[in-house]
């Protein structure tokens, strides 16, 4: 079972790296900074200005996280695509970062054709981590499934034929 | 200070003394490193692909084997057949199907094996190229050290002997050869990337 699984690449993702979570944290920080600045700036003393300030503050601070995430995903996609190209002999499917995310969230398998022959599948799956606070570990693996063969049907037909006799 | 000596002595300063000689190496070592990095990346993906496709070959081979077993069994049943003609006909049909399945799986296995061989060839070519690149890089580094020492020695001589010592920095006999070899290694590696790279 295990030797049929080829790990193309694996990566870890800490919950704190999520841009959305970072944005929330920076928003809280922005509210606090805004409250302090209210003391000095009378212009900030209304809800709209305060909200605008918070959003811009958190947005600017979140940009690096978004950029880092983007470039990381791009590198990941490149590595997976490189392997796919070698497997399929060039006529492969180019995976985009969006498709990769889709594969990860849906758990679907991407079929790969080797010289037009089916049997290889690309999965993006989460590796089960033991402790709760451990970073999420993900991996992209290629598995080989046996070719679809009508062995069972053939056996049933053969049995039926022999029983008749 | 030194320039004033040169002016007094009236000896022209040779350009070799002003330009550090290791600059010749810098660009080449960079190219070598670049080619090595790219080939290593390529080797990694080719290696993974090779493992994956090889495991697929195993699957197809075992399927082929299973059909071969079915075919043998039906063939045996046909030989010991003692039933009616309809049963015989059905058995013959099943036998034909099994034979077809065996040949089909066999052909498919062969086609996938071709891909395995292709990937193996690529793997070997890249490994070979990496070895060449590494040797070239080692030779260049050694040559660079020697050249630096020679340069330092020349400068010491020049400074000791004053202007009249006139550093005729001896042309580096190893340098041209090393650079040529490095260039060849890089060209080979790049050609490999282009020829084998379907992208």
Can you characterise this structure?
The complex is a heterodimer of chains A (about 160) and B (about 200). With about 160 residues, chain A is of the alpha+beta class. Chain A has one domain. Chain A is about 55% helix and about 20% strand. Chain A has a four-stranded antiparallel sheet with strand order 1-4-3-2. In chain A, α1 (about 20-40) packs antiparallel against α2. The longest helix of chain A is centred in the middle third of the chain and has 42 residues, at about 45-90. With about 200 residues, chain B is mainly α. Chain B has one domain. Chain B is built from five helices and no strands. In chain B, α3 runs antiparallel to α4 and α4 runs antiparallel to α5. The two termini of chain B are about 60 Å apart. The chains are: A alpha+beta (about 160), B mainly alpha (about 200). The interface between A and B is large, with 34 and 44 residues.
Mean pLDDT of chain A: 81
- Detail the poorly predicted runs of chain B: 1-22
Question: Roughly how many Å is the radius of gyration of chain B?
Answer: 34 Å
How many extended strands of chain A?
A: 4
Keywords:
heterodimer; A: 165 residues; alpha+beta; four-stranded antiparallel β-sheet; elongated; B: 199 residues; mainly alpha
Topology:
The complex is a heterodimer of chains A (165) and B (199).
Chain A: E1 5-13, H1 19-40, H2 47-88, H3 97-106, E2 109-114, E3 117-127, E4 136-144, H4 151-164
Antiparallel strand pairs in A: 1-4, 2-3, 3-4
Chain B: H1 2-9, H2 15-18, H3 23-79, H4 85-161, H5 173-196
Question: How would you summarize this macromolecular structure in one to three sentences?
Answer:
The complex is a heterodimer of chains A (165) and B (199). With 165 residues, chain A is of the alpha+beta class.
């Amino acid at each position: 079972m295990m030797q049929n699984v080829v790990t193309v690449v694996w990566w870890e993702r800490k919950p704190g790296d999520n841009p959305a979570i970072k944005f929330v944290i920076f928003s809280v920080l922005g509210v606090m900074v805004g409250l302090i600045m209210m003391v000095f700036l009378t212009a900030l003393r209304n809800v709209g200005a305060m909200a605008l300030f918070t959003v811009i503050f958190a947005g600017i601070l979140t940009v690096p996280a978004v950029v880092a995430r983007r470039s990381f995903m791009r590198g990941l996609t490149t590595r997976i695509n490189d392997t796919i190209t070698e497997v399929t002999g060039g006529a492969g499917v180019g995976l985009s970062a969006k498709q990769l995310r889709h594969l990860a969230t849906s758990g679907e398998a991407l079929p790969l054709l080797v010289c037009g022959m089916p049997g290889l599948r690309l999965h993006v799956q989460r590796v089960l981590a033991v402790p709760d606070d451990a970073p999420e570990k993900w991996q992209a693996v290629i598995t080989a499934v046996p070719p679809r063969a009508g062995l069972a049907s053939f056996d049933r037909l053969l049995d039926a034929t022999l029983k008749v006799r | 200070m030194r320039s004033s000596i040169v002016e007094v002595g009236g000896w022209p300063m040779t350009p070799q003394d002003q330009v550090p000689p290791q600059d010749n190496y810098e660009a080449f070592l960079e190219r070598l490193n670049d080619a090595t990095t790219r080939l290593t990346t390529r080797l990694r993906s080719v290696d993974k692909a090779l493992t994956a496709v090889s495991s697929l070959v195993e699957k197809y081979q075992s399927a082929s084997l299973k059909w071969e077993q079915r075919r043998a069994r039906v063939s045996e049943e046909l030989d010991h057949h003692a039933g009616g003609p309809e049963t015989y006909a059905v058995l013959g049909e099943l036998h034909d199907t099994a034979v077809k399945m065996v040949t089909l799986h066999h052909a498919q296995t062969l086609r996938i094996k071709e891909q395995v061989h292709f990937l193996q060839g690529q793997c070997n070519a890249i490994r070979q190229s990496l070895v060449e690149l590494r040797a070239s890089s080692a030779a260049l580094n050694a040559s660079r050290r020697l050249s630096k020492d020679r340069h330092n020695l020349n400068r010491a001589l020049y400074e000791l002997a004053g202007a009249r010592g006139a550093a005729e920095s001896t042309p580096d006999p190893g340098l041209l050869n090393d650079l040529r070899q490095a260039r060849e290694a890089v060209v080979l590696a790049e050609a490999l990337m282009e020829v084998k790279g379907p992208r």
